[in-house]
Amino acid sequence: MKEINKFDDDPTQLDAHDWRILSLLQTDAGLSNQALAEAVNLSPATCHRRVQRLTRAGVIEKRVAILSPTKLAAWTGWGLSALVEVSLDVQTSEALDAFEARAVDELSVQQCWRVSPGPDFVLVIQVADMPAYQDVARRLFSEDARVRNVRAFFGVKRAKFGTAVPLPAGIAR
């Protein structure tokens, strides 16, 4: 018998089990289905179906391991973090889309945000060192005639880094 859930008909509706699953997976996406099911008081099969449904609906985008760039720098050489504001000379959808596509294709760009007001984009870039940053800057900024202004801020210390989306108070407890 197929499980009937209001989420199947209206993906904007989440029940207490869904919220708890989301809360737990944000904290530890490596939880086994068995452990997750026990924590939310569901059968493993029902819990698995709910996670699949949340994934199909795009509520869960992906499940990943978050690595420490600081601890890995000795092996990877990727030790410089930069937050970069980029303004284009025109804000047509074509110009914005073209720059965004180039930034997204650049391996060292970890995040690319279109923002407003102020600059058009904010990028989070992770590279080995300053010469590597200069190579990225040349490819992304200097060689693009539409880039009007670039302001780069280099990370000295990462005081906080998180990926959890704040969930409604009390709903996921």
Structure description:
The protein is an alpha+beta fold. The protein has two domains: 7-56, Orthogonal Bundle (Arc Repressor Mutant, subunit A); 69-154, 2-Layer Sandwich (Alpha-Beta Plaits). Helix content is 41%, strand content 17%. It has helices at residues 6-9, 16-27, 33-40, 44-56, 69-76, 93-105, 130-142; strands at residues 80-88, 109-114, 121-127, 147-154. The protein has a four-stranded antiparallel sheet with strand order 2-3-1-4, covered by helices on one side. A hairpin with a 6-residue loop joins strand 2 (109-114) and strand 3. Helix 3 crosses helix 4 (44-56). The longest helix is centred in the first third of the chain and has 13 residues, at 44-56. The mean pLDDT is 89.
Explain the layout of strands and helices.
Elements: H1 6-9, H2 16-27, H3 33-40, H4 44-56, H5 69-76, E1 80-88, H6 93-105, E2 109-114, E3 121-127, H7 130-142, E4 147-154
Antiparallel strand pairs: 1-3, 1-4, 2-3
Helix pairs in contact: 2-3, 3-4
Number of strands: 4
Distance between the termini: 30 Å
The shape, in one word, is: elongated
Structural class: alpha+beta
Question: Which stretches are low in confidence, meaning pLDDT under 50 for 5 or more residues running?
Answer: none
Number of domains: 2
Our count of helices gives 7
* Oligomeric state: single chain
Fold-level CATH name of the largest domain: Alpha-Beta Plaits
CATH class bucket of the largest domain: Alpha Beta
The CATH homologous superfamily of the largest domain corresponds to Lrp/AsnC effector binding domain/regulation of amino acid metabolism (RAM) domain
Average pLDDT metric: 89
Q: Which range best describes the helical content: under 10%, 10-25%, 25-40%, 40-55%, 55-70% or over 70%? A: 40-55%
Strand portion: 15-25%
Helix and strand element order: HHHHHEHEEHE
Largest sheet: 4 strands, antiparallel
Global Rg? 21 Å
Strand neighbour order, sheet with most strands: 2-3-1-4
Secondary-structure arrangement, i.e. CATH architecture of the largest domain: 2-Layer Sandwich
